[in-house]
Fold this protein.
Amino acid sequence: MGFLRLITNAHVMGADAATQKQAWKIYEALSRDERVIFLNESPGIDGEWSKRTQGTSSSTNTWTDAYLAAFATIRGLRIVSFDRGFKKLAGIDALIL
């Protein structure tokens, strides 16, 4: 979800932003790459996600990042992203490309 959202975002990708159709083709190619793995949600993700979304603003942009951070935290994973916003999230291992 985060990948598809970001690769189609002109603010992130500039002139290289993909259409939704192109994004799915890129996603499908990545899913065949042996370096990429897909994991199911872990028990406890809702609690971790809830902890990361207790702000007092009505920010709509934090939901996806908070979900991905919660997933990574529960699984002990590193987030690899173009999104510099992950640097602001506490307690995650993030590699910003």
